[in-house]
Amino acid sequence: MREVWYDSLVHHVFIMKRRRDLREYFLLNINTVVRMMIISDTVWMGALGFLGPIFALFIVGYIEGGSAEVAGVAASIYLITKSIFQIPIAAIIDHIAGEVDDFWLMFIGSIASALVPLLYLIIHTPMQLYAVQFIYGLLVAATFPSYMAIISRHMDKQKEGSEWGIYFTLTDFSSAIAASIGGVVAAQSGFHSLIIIVVVVSLMGALLTYPIRPYMRPAR
Question: Closest Cα partner for 123 from 174, 165, 67, 62?
């Protein structure tokens, strides 16, 4: 009887844990701030996934003198700019008390970043592309540290690992699905239509962070 009771208890605990894990995957056991920020970045990363894997094809097809080398330099400019400015901006964010400044920097920076791909529609030369990549890197350098600062502070205690796992799982899934859809849209309707879709979806992702504004902690 004791073994039967123990097996029943273990089975019950397993079922409850499984249900809890499933609820977390659907963001039901997560606080409002973290939930909205995960949803926002899932949409945002999906938008980037539409264009990211085939961006080099866009450069070759629509930029004068576009080549693999130009695509490599463009990617490097974005990453180097983001890397150089990210830490100084993060230090400024940490120096200013409260979360209100973090929120507005994240929100405005996300809106601006979402609009940057529109510039791809009007550029024609590698130098113009490099300038856009520099602007894009600078905006992301301002946005990413503020996003990470807010979501890190609001993670549920003792559930940080699970919530980061859910974050990366959902954003990776959205990027994977969007990559295949982006290729189809580019092939069927062209890159200009795809870029408009990227901008619209990115803006949706950015706007999804606005509901967390009342939860931001003011400076004391």
Answer: 62
